[in-house]
Specification:
SH3 type barrels, single chain, five-stranded antiparallel β-sheet, 5 strands, alpha+beta, elongated
């Protein structure tokens, strides 16, 4: 199964080849290849899979997806706590 995560572009290194940037995934920042998205700009939200930004996404959609992942993580934490009790 493939999973692409939404993140917000915080920095773009215009001089790098391939084009690279820093993307913030809810507090976790990673270096990401932006080569496939020449139109990507600072503060855009992008979907990233294995270190490659694949497409731009609407900010609201990205924020909803991030919130859903957080809820899933919290639910898993609760399940783990219940198993150890």
């Amino acid at each position: 199964m493939c999973l692409a995560l939404p993140g917000r572009i915080e920095y773009i290194d215009e001089g790098s080849t391939p084009k690279m940037g820093t993307v913030d995934f809810g507090g976790i920042k990673k270096n990401v290849c932006l080569e496939f998205l020449p139109e990507a700009a600072l503060h855009d939200y992008v979907l990233v899979h294995v270190g490659m930004a694949l497409t731009k996404v609407d900010e609201q959609e990205a924020l909803e997806t991030i919130a859903m992942y957080k809820e899933m993580g919290e639910a898993l934490d609760e399940l783990k706590e219940g198993e150890s009790a």
